[in-house]
Every structure is written in structure tokens, then in C-alpha cells.
Amino acid sequence: MKKIILSIFSLVILSCSSDNDEPIKEISVKLKFTQNWDGTIIERSDLENTEFTNKTGSKLTISRLRYLISRVSLVNGASDTTKFDSYKLVDINKPDNLTLALPEKISEGSYKLLFTFGFIDKDNISSAYTDLNSVDWNVPDMMGGGYHFMQLDGQYKDTLGIKNPYNFHAVRAYNSEKDSIFDTSISIETGSILLKNNATIEIKMNAAGWFKSPNDWNLNEKSVDLMGDFEAQKDISENGKSGVFSLGTITQ
Amino acid sequence: MGCSSKEEIENVYTPVQVSLKIPEIFQQKLIAPIIPTNNPLTEEGIALGKKLFFDPILSKDNTQSCASCHNPKKAFTNNTRFSEGVDGKLGTRNSMPLFNLAWNFDERFMWDGKDFSIEHQAFSPVRNPIEMHSNWKNVAEKLQEHTEYPTLFQQAFGTSKIDSTHVTKAIAQFERTLISGSSKFDQYLLGKTELTPEELNGFNVFMDEARGDCFHCHGSDNNPLWTDNQFHNNGLDETFNDLGLGAVTGDPNDNGKFKSPSLRNLAFTAPYMHDGRFTTLDEVINHYSEGLKQSLTIDPLMKKVNQGGVQLSDKDKADLKTFLLSLSDNNFINNPDFQQ
Asked: B45 and B65: one domain?
């Protein structure tokens, strides 16, 4: 396991006024994304190596895990919201690139952190983001367009113990017959976080959670061609809403 | 005095900075190409790089240039399965076409990604025993004694002392200008031409997760590079003679993985795959449709491997091929800037 040492430079703003008011500190915040399988950390070295078991008992390995986080904002006690106009493609194959530094500083204080898994419809515009196009993150227009929310690919063992691929891709649900879409992005809100210094907030993603509650997922029934499967996308989204993302440690 | 004033003029010569001519469709869809700050593009550097690229002086016996294996008329590859080096020895990999290299954002070159950066890649053919089989000391000496090169290096890099660093920088500058972005399909995306119904269906086969599902690795209308420049095992073999990426990383999970090639210019670049095993696109399509082989490191996107492949109908196969050919760019292979 690689330990990342974060050097935190805290910026102290000194007040010049003659009275002794405590200055309000401006701090910067980073989000750090970690992944686990029901608590066991998943790192790059686990890719194609470590076998996990999902809720319905299928043994599987993970080859690729990338997912998109957008619309990060911090809401303080007075319900003032600071929105950060950025998104982050998390790729566990790129361990040096698992943090998102929020582009603006905030005042110290107590906050709730809000973010979205995937893109809400308004943001999910085909071809709009050149950096995402450049890493092949698009969804073909025939499958509703926009961008992937997640690519979780790997191999599972079927009931006969034979290795089979799975492509667990989360996208906006699209019904091609009716040409209707359903927003399957997930908005997540953490409990209150007290931020006093420059901080790194860990966001944990439990990959096992995608395969359970409320929809226990049987890979023997559905494992590939999920992008154009309206019901599958709704099920994935429902599973994502229940406990896949959680707040981890806060370093400050 | 005449002598020293001439030197002074040479020393103050500043090369003319140029920027790449980025195709409109790349401008719209992609992030900026990679140009290292220590090797900015200049007219003089590019011209010098081009001269070097076509000059057999870089090889041991002055018989082979980069262009011997990277022919502009063939989208800068050649049509033999393997290439003969100066000593008549055959390599074990198919030569690669050269275009849009500045958009390889991870900068990992060769079939197995062993060379980081275009500059660095250009070091290897010169000393590779199965390619130009020379060494940089000899090459630098030959260039230094040449009637034109010292002046050209002076103009491009401000020094007439020739070394491998400047040779590879010049070649890399030329290589970055090799841009292919005006195929029929590019024109279609820009609204300047129509596709035939066959080409359109072929595109849909390519994009449809439930049919070809090629876009996850080979780009799309929104990634007009037509490659992800990543490494995958696309089901060619059960066991591997050539470990590919695995030999570079030492990780057995990378065995049998090779870089996804761009699907631009396939009309000119046969044979196909890292070892040139397929002579036609029909063979390639049949491979994905019913010829996949299971192996330890096969990519999960080869999702129907246990059924042999994605099982395309004859019509879908034919249309897919027609679509793939619409990605070939005649303007690129005929661009006068790229000919010797």
C-alpha cells in the first residue's frame, strides 16, 4: 500500500488592524477519492489480481474502474453555497491523480459537502468537454449521448466457474424506442464537516455497493450491453444511491 | 574580420516559430496537442527534421532512412509484415503509421509503449540492430562533416555542433506536423459531405454496444483520433510469443497488451495488428466477429469471447468495413509538405 504524504502549507493571513480581532482564515480544500470493496481498499495493484465476491456470490476481478464526479459544492451553516465549477474523472489506474483540488478558497467553518456522481442532464451534453472526449469517455448518441458516469470492467466466474467478461457501465438511462431519457446521476450529501485549516477530505466509494441494495445484481443474468438497457441503468442508479459513497477521513 | 562577422550573423539567427495547423474537428473536440517547452516548433527545425527523416545518412551503411519503413504514401508505414533492417534482419513487429502523434496524450510510443515521448522514440531506430544499426557517435560525425547540416543545425538550434539530442528534436518537430484530419468522415462531421447508407450503418455498428462496440477503445465521432492510445489485449492469441506491454512493465497482467492503433488511414496501412498477421480488413472484422481467443489478460470489452466474438451479420461486416475506409485521408498521404 502506498502512503501519500501530503504537505500542507497553511496560509496565515495577518490582520493589520490595531484591535485584536481573530482574522477569518481562508482555506483550500482537496477531495481525495478512494475505492474499497465492503471496506477492503482497492488499489491499482488489485486490478486484474484480487478476487472479490459480490452479494449474489459471484467471484469477480476488476480490470478497469473509472468514474465521474461533478458539481462539487460546500454549504455552510448559513446555507450559503460555494459551487466549484469543475468535474473529476477518477481512474484508479492513475494513482497519482486521485485528488481534486477545489479551485477557490473558502472561509474556515462548518460545511456540508455536496457532489454528483455522473453528470446531471443539464451538464450531460454530447461532446461538450474536450478533456473527456480525449479519453474516450463519450456515450454514443444512439445510446442517449453525453458521457459515461462509470466504467467498471472485469471478469466474473459464471455458475460453471468459467471466466466471463462484465462491462458494468453506468450512463444516463435511455429508452431508444421511446427516445426518452431518465437522469440517473446521483447527488450525494455528506454530514457536517468542520474545516479549520487547509483540508483533504476523503470520499470513499464502495464498489461492492453497486451490486446490492436495493437491487441485488446477478452477473449471470446481466453482465454486458448495459448502456442501452434502460431498466439496468435505473437499477444501477438506485444501488448507487444507497451507501456506495461515504465520507472518509479528513486531514487538516 | 569578415569571418567573425559571419559568425555573429549565424549566432543571432532566430528560428521562426510556427504553430501546428490543427484540423477544425480536432479543435472542436480535443484538448491541445503536446508540444514540449524545450522543443518548440520552428520552420527551420521542421525542415531539418524532414531532411533527416528522409536521409539514409542516419543508417550504418547509408542505405536506410526512417522513410524506408515509414513511407508517406502509406500513411508513413510500409506494406510488409515485418521490416528489414540494414543488415537484412527482419523485425518482429509491423511498422507503425505516423500521424497525430502530438495527440498521444500519455506519450507512450511503439506497440508496447516502451518509448516515452516522440523525441525519445527517435533515438532508438538509429542504433537498433534490426533497423538502422548505426550508433549516434558515427551519425553525429557524418552529419558534422556534411556540407549542409552544420548550417541547418545552426539555424534551427543556434549551434552547429551536432548531437543526438538535436537530431531527435528536429525529427520530432517534423513528426508533430504529420497531422491527418481530413478524411471523408471528418468532412461529414463538419457537414461538408454526406455518408452513404452503408457507411452510416457501418458507423452505427461501430458505435452500438450491442453490435460492434468498437468505440470503447478506438475513438468515435467525439474522439476523432480513432484510438484511445491505451494498451489492451484484443483476443488475438491464447498464449503470447510477444509479451507486448508486459515486457515493458514486467507485470504479467500486461502480457499480450498492445497499443490500440488509430483506425484512420487503414486503406493505406495493411497488414494489420502488431505482427501484421491480417492482410485484409475482412480478416480483422472476422477476428472481432468470431475469431476471438480467450487468454489470461484479455480485455473485458472483448465481451463475447466465449461465443467467439460479437457475431456480426454479413451486411454489418461489409458496412463496418466501408465505414472504416471512410476514415482514410487522401489529403494526408498526398500532402506535398510530407513528400521527400
From this structure: yes
